[in-house]
Amino acid sequence: MFKAVKTQLSYVKRALSNICIVGAGPAGFYAAQHLAKKVQETQIDIIEKLPVPFGLVRYGVAPDHPEVKNVINTFTKTAQLPNVNFYGNIELGKDVSLQELRQFYNIVLLTYGADKNRSLNIPGEHLTNVIPARQIVGWYNGLPENKNLKINLDVETAAIIGQGNVAVDVARILLTPIEELQKTDITHFSLERISQSKLKKVYLIGRRGPLQAAYTIKELREMLKLKDCVTVWRTKDFDNIGNDIIEKLPRPKKRIAELMLKSVKEQENLEQAKVFSPVFFRSPVNILGENCVNQLELAVNVLKGEDISSQASSMTEEKELIDCELVISSIGYKSHSVDLSLPFDDKKGIIQNTKGKVDVGLYTSGWLGTGPVGVILTTMSNAFGVAENIIEDIPKDNLFNTEKPGFSGLNAILKEKNIQIVDWTGWEKIDKYEIAQGEKTGKPREKVVDIKVMLEIAFS
Amino acid sequence: MALNVLRQTVKVKNLLFKTISFRYASGVQPLGQPELNKKEIDITFVKANGSRIKTKGKIGDSLLDVVVNNNIDLEGFGACEGTLTCSTCHLIFPKEIFDILPSKASDEELDMLDLAYELSDTSRLGCQIILTENLDGLEVTVPATINDARS
Ligand SMILES: Cc1cc2nc3c(=O)[nH]c(=O)nc-3n(C[C@H](O)[C@H](O)[C@H](O)COP(=O)(O)OP(=O)(O)OC[C@H]3O[C@@H](n4cnc5c(N)ncnc54)[C@H](O)[C@@H]3O)c2cc1C
Ligand code: FES
């Protein structure tokens, strides 16, 4: 109700300048927060492909990490500011083009994230039960495009390729006792599948050594403490890590190295428990199987270079075969270009930019501009920084000198295409509905995974 | 081990509850109104650009509570609302104060600190620092949050 009035008001106050932010994830919300605070008399519209906001906070962050999602409260406050609007169910590149947006808005900030995944590019990647981690994350978190994921958990061993926090998240969700998972907002269909899982062992395979592993210490500590699961290391992987090396590491690396070494020393193989097994110095070269994967061939690597943090892996002739009936590739997310005019760096998978600036009046921030690395803090810091640069450019580049129609221009073309726009009130209805559905089964929320249903609820 | 995990969850829950209740309180209560006759002490936040924000905090509150309850303008501070999962509440203490802080950092706090920008030997997470009387006059440095794009 309140929101509807607000929208109409913004039609009246048309003398404003207009900023459009594309993508309602952390980068979009944090940039909006900073701009709303610092730039006077400006309307900020956040448009989002899905009918629902929050990007990877909703669809990436693991269901058993609800505390991380508290940022949603801050984002909600931003969305409710008088000069900020959320418009969901609008996809840049499909429903509206970049050229059109730039005609309607004085400034366009692209924060549409990285929603593709890198492929392994090795033989056998097409085999059944070889699945990108991104899809598994989407499946357990209720991302509409992954709701029908085909995954067979009637298997004993899985190999995850990659050692970032996403890889650890997936390993943890697959190994966590079901009693723990059912208290989270994990989707009911994935919960059911995981409850019948026969999985006993999950490998976490990395190209380089323990000192170069990408996971952070908090995620590792969680694995070490996981109920009914033991972490089994290959002692040999730690052969060259002596005290002399550890003492010289910067504090974060030193602490995680010490934690790993402690765990290596204390490790025991309990009969009953499930096994989490990090494996280092291995690159996948071949996935084997008839229809379904049953083995993974790994090349043995050695490290080259002096500096520990930048040591590169180099394959030797030696190979290792491991039996596994599920292979999960977790070697990174990747952005894509929504418009041919964008200077897109295919190799890095980002839009080329200088401190966020792409062109006069066109900016990017978050994973789309930095690459898919770092935590919400990293994204926040980048978004504040890019927003600050925009503020400096406004007078320099005369960004507010032309009057532009803003949302009314956008709305006109969306109307023509019959596109339903979900505003904040619409999201609040979906939010309420999900929480109510969750209550029925003792979960904090049961996500709606069908876009059609989301729209029905939003417009009910 | 299981007990440890349990304790951790309980702790996190309490913290969460506390922050939320104060969050509501901050909306209705005028600044500095004495609640439960708790004693207040002086605190100064020193921002990266050198500006100083002087405020008061109640004994028993965390430094995150102080920021939230007094609407201190520290952008992005306390994103996870005191649940030890974000490190946006990173603060740097003078050495002599750091040494007398009422609690030492837990492994979990150090884990989060390891992700913070400008980590120093006297860094702590503000949501984990509970005010005591001997912290009266405390001056803490707030590291810059605007990093990447500016450097
Ligand atoms: C599996 C996983 C787990 C994570 N866990 C944690 C964690 O525990 N703690 C932590 O601090 N960080 C975590 N992160 C990192 C964190 O999620 C990112 O730092 C952050 O979400 C990046 O924000 P962003 O806004 O750049 O991108 P995103 O969050 O991806 O937001 C992009 C938004 O743009 C929308 N969009 C995409 N295409 C279009 C289009 N064409 N038009 C309009 N909108 C579009 C998307 O739907 C999305 O809402 C995790 C990341 C992943 C992948
Ligand atoms: S508020 Fe997130 S760690 Fe302190």
From TrEMBL, chain A:
Cofactor(s) the protein needs: FAD
Keywords associated with the record: Electron transport, FAD, Flavoprotein, Mitochondrion, NADP, Oxidoreductase, Transport
EC top class, as a word: oxidoreductase
Catalysis: reaction(s): 2 reduced [adrenodoxin] + NADP(+) + H(+) = 2 oxidized [adrenodoxin] + NADPH
Pathway it works in: Steroid metabolism; cholesterol metabolism
Enzyme Commission no: 1.18.1.6
UniProt xrefs under InterPro entries: FAD/NAD-bd_sf, FAD/NAD-binding_dom, Ferredox_Rdtase, Ferredox_Rdtase_adrenod
Gene3D superfamilies: FAD/NAD(P)-binding domain, NAD(P)-binding Rossmann-like Domain
Domain of life: Eukaryota
Family per similarity comment: Belongs to the ferredoxin--NADP reductase type 1 family.
Name of the protein: NADPH:adrenodoxin oxidoreductase, mitochondrial
Organism this protein belongs to: Hypothenemus hampei
Species lineage: Eukaryota, Metazoa, Ecdysozoa, Arthropoda, Hexapoda
Automatic annotation (TrEMBL), chain B:
Alphabetic keyword roster: 2Fe-2S, Electron transport, Iron, Iron-sulfur, Lipid metabolism, Metal-binding, Mitochondrion, Steroid metabolism, Steroidogenesis, Transport
GO biological process terms held by the UniProt record: positive regulation of ecdysteroid biosynthetic process; steroid biosynthetic process
Transmembrane region(s): none
Gene Ontology annotations for the cellular component aspect, listed alphabetically: mitochondrion
Subcellular location: Mitochondrion
All residue ranges annotated as the 2Fe-2S ferredoxin-type domain in the record: 41-146
Pfam families assigned: Fer2 (PF00111)
Main location per the UniProt record: mitochondrion
Cofactor(s) named in the record: [2Fe-2S] cluster
GO molecular function: 2 iron, 2 sulfur cluster binding; metal ion binding
Alphabetical list of PROSITE patterns matching this protein: 2FE2S_FER_2, ADX
Coiled-coil annotated residue ranges, if any: none
InterPro entries membership: 2Fe-2S_ferredoxin-like_sf, 2Fe-2S_ferredoxin-type, Adrenodoxin-like, Adrenodoxin_Fe-S_BS, Beta-grasp_dom_sf
Signal peptide: none
UniProt xrefs under PANTHER family: ADRENODOXIN-LIKE PROTEIN 2, MITOCHONDRIAL, FERREDOXIN/ADRENODOXIN
Sequence similarity: Belongs to the adrenodoxin/putidaredoxin family.
Role summary: Required for ecdysteroidogenesis in the prothoracic gland which is necessary for larval to pupal transition.
This protein's name: 2Fe-2S ferredoxin-type domain-containing protein
Lineage, uppermost ranks: Eukaryota, Metazoa, Ecdysozoa, Arthropoda, Hexapoda
